[in-house]
Structure prediction request, 88 residues.
Amino acid sequence: MVREVGDFLLIHVATPAEVCEERDRKGLYAKARAGIIEHFTGVSDPYEEPRDADLVIDTSDTSRAEALETVLRLLADGGWLPPVTTEA
Prediction:
């Protein structure tokens, strides 16, 4: 539906649930496991990974800077942003 009015890129942040749970500052995973939060994706509701992502980034083994550079490069390569230049 989106393609009828413009471009759409699907960027999948494919960080394992265990890593997301370790990083969870608000304690939402713990609340979901205790039954306090219902229908929590990855705990009580299934998570379906997209099979058609334009880009997949696993932040468990990619730094923020690397992830940003990867996204910017995708946008530049696709013509949405000016070419990415690296400074020496």
Notes: The radius of gyration is 17 Å. DSSP finds three helices and two strands in the chain.
